[in-house]
Amino acid sequence: MNAFTLKIIALVAMFIDHIGIVMPEFFGLSPGINIFRVIGRVAFPIFVYLIAEGFRHTKSPEKFLLRLGIFALISEVPFDLALNAQVNFLADTNIFYTLFLGGTAIFAYEYIGQMRKNEPASGDVGGTFPKGWRGFAAFIPACICLILAELLTADYGADGVAFIFFMYLIKPLKWRLSVMAAMCIWLHEGTIRAVLSGYDVPSIFLLMILATLVPVGLFALYNGKRGAGLKWIFYVAYPAHLMVLYAISAFSAFS
To answer: What is the pTM of this model?
Structure first.
């Protein structure tokens, strides 16, 4: 299974998820948590893993990061029109904000890591970072990105940014998939806490946890190859499908 196939799976799952939010009644679904929302849980872990893979293999991380930032801004209007009551670039922001902040954490980590390689071999004089802080400094931008994700109330918040960063930092596949599974479960920590506290949790919330874990199995089959190109389609598909859903929803409301 290559990256192109995984992206298609993620896009289809995401599209189904957003139908379950914007127009559930069209398919006879209840508003809120429904089976379409369950299917949609498959999408985010796939995007997370592939964003980390992209930064691991790209020859131009600056351009990669710029694309994510541009599409975060482009996507916010259709995202807000389809899913939120009003357009706001600084609150309830779309998934590209999360991907951009995760990418920024990775980019800054590597940039500072490169600076550290050029530090004097010993002594405190002439270095960019004080001795003893040089390793820690590479993680400061990631912490800032976590905070920004919460302030911007980006999709999945700080957990989403941390997820992307971990998928980049962890190189061995076995450990990466293990941490991926742990993060997929952590995304539902509220549900897990409720179950452990003895509350009667509706089964659909438990299905959401299982659906979020599906990508772990898919990436166990991942062959590391990119597959077909068409990378711009995946960027454009996000704001485009939201605009289509908004148009259909608006038309239905006036008809």
So the answer is: 0.92
